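Worked example (supplementary).
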Amino acid sequence: MDEKLIGKRLKKAVFLAIGIMAALAVLCVVLFVFLRNTVYSATHDRLAEETGIYRQRIYEQLETDFRILDTFAGAAEPGKLWESESFGDLLCEINSRNDFVTTGYFPKGEETGIIALEGESAARETEYASAVGEVQTAVASAWNCSRTDEQQVFVSRMFDSAFADEKVFLYALPLYEGDEAAGALFASARMDIFYDIIDDGNVLGGNGYIHLLGSEGDYLVRSEHTIVKERPDNIFEGDYFSEEEGERLYAAMQNEERVFSSFRYEGKSYQVVLVPVRFNGWYLFCINTVRASNGPAFRIIWGMCATFAALLVVIVGLLIYIYRLLKKNNGELSYIAYHDALTGAENFIKFKQDLSARRREGCLAALNLRHFKFINEIFGKEKADQLLVQAGECISRHMHTGEFFCRDSADQFYIFLLETDREIISRRLNGIMDEIVGTFVRMNSDYRLLIYTGVIVLAQENEKIGSENAVAQALLAMERAKGGYKNNVCFYSPDMFREEEMDNYIESHMQAALDNGEFKMFLQPKVDLGTGRVIAAEALARWVTGDGRTIYPGRFIPVFERNGFCTQLDMYMLELACRRIRSWMDEGKKPIGISVNQSKLLFFESDYIGRVGALLEKYKVPAELITLEILEELALTDADELGGKLAQLRRMGLRISMDDFGSGYSSLNTLGRLDIDEVKLDRGFLREASEKCCGRSAVIMEESVRLAHRLNISVVVEGVETAENHSLIRSLGCDVGQGYYYGRPIETEKFDALYM
Ligand code: C2E
Ligand code: CA
Ligand code: CA
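After joint prediction of all chains, the assembly is encoded as:
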């Protein structure tokens, strides 16, 4: 699998896991908020409910005060009272009984009234004008009241008492004469009367405090117990509430709304509620002293969250660990999967991936070491492996950025270079090959390593061929680079592909062609240079395919030599030659000899000689009419064994001719060692001799002819194309000429018509 794909899947799994964890975390937060809100709203309800009870108690206290005054006011006749001497005493008595600070009366429209101070006698002639503003306002409201009005009691705002060193507030209610107010009865009460109410120590089961506030947020009655040590005069003093929150609370208070809030003090959060008393703008300010987060419900929530968070951390940690482990393993696995264990280079799979993924033009080279099997056997596996490692390192050193290479199996390397210029490619590849050869020379000084490389240039227009095809084409070019005696670089060309295709065609059709008689025997005359007469012919194969195409032996013989089919064809040609001689004899013509080409593979077949004999026998052909042309190269392979077989054939009467003499490593020695009848001088010999007339070639040729004659070997010259060629070989003393000058290879029927 692709390394990136594995990584991708791994990442996907991790992201999925992280996604699930995140979803769980969100769920947890939602749950937390929900629970917290539930707990808050439960606490709020409880706060509100409790505060309501205290408000009720305050009401009750106020009502008691009212009732006393009201009862008094209901029974009184204002005129009489005012005149009465005991009015002062009466007021003193109300005062002392009810804990008022002052009680008093201001007749309507008068400038003075009467005031009884707590624990003192009443003072008449108290000036109305001398009373504080709060008193005047309340009194004036009572004066202006009539019986039918809904509000009959007026309460002042809180003020500093002129008589007691504390804050008080004032009740004022009208005394009527008829339906109109004749005066205002008033009593000032201490705020402290609410202490006992709000400071009973039972607020929220002992976990809360209540303060009584004025409408502006100032403390009217402060509970003994407070959380805030600084004891500000107003709840908005200090920075317990943020400015915004303060504004919200203040606005709510102006509208006499109940409002919840919280504040932080010394790192702890407290919940509060402000409940309007609906009396004189007063507010009850209740604080839940139990820190919100310490409540049992909160403890459960926090516990849950902590557990979950811990779990989350553990799982995330585990995920990271697993991810790293998998990534590491994945890395190791993909290293193994994509690298060659021996050289550490990339392997072919990875190379092909890289080749497919590449975006730039360049070239692909297939590099191979010649005779690596041989090196393996001769120098041993260890040395051979060492050579491969060195080769890998060597190639690696020559790679530029963006270039890559791999070792496939054995000694097959592939290299991708970012080059398209053939000259540069050749130079760089030759550099690599020379360096590898150099290293091997240092390892084994006497072995000459040969390397061959096939290259396909992957320029823009070739882009569509795909990596598989590119590799195949580089290999094809590499096969072409194989021959030769030095390092070689061969570039792929479409012809190679066509040749490959042709090779495939030949191989897949050869047997059927032989069975169908598609191989024809053409004859080329051999001319006696002395008489000018055709004294023999050479049988040359032509493949005339079903659709009339003629394929020449230069194309199919090398293929047959590679796959061994040559032996079948040669025997077939030998049979055709025998048949032709037979028919000449049967037709009463004087038969001439026919030379047939014999591949060296035949000489390795055990029954070869027997089969030749059988053919001669079958067609009753005199053996001396058949000349077997063997290649010079064959004579060099294993001269002694071959010599034995040739001697046997000669004993049977057949003539032996050494073909293409002078094309390879000719040695005049061979002539002496082999028992042959004829030597055919290669075309090249004649070419050289005629180009540099009287030069060295002519001398060698002349000497060869002399030597051959001395050994009783007749000399045939091939490729005689011109009259000059003809005169030259005649002057050199050659015996027989063969070439276009005398006649091309032609069908047997035409040959018969022309020469027989
Ligand atoms: P070869 O045995 O050396 O055959 C001579 C080749 O030279 C023939 O080519 C012939 O057509 C060509 N030739 C003849 N005169 C001239 C000339 O004046 N100028 C030039 N340039 N060429 C001339 P061909 O027929 O194409 O055969 C090529 C080779 O194929 C032969 O070389 C031979 O080695 C091989 N061959 C042909 N038929 C057979 C066969 O039946 N069996 C085997 N084993 N090999 C065969
Ligand atoms: Ca020949
Ligand atoms: Ca020849």
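Two points are worth noting when inspecting this output. Residues 3-75 form the longest helix (73 residues). The chain has five domains: 3-59+295-325, 77-189, 199-288, 335-493, 502-755.
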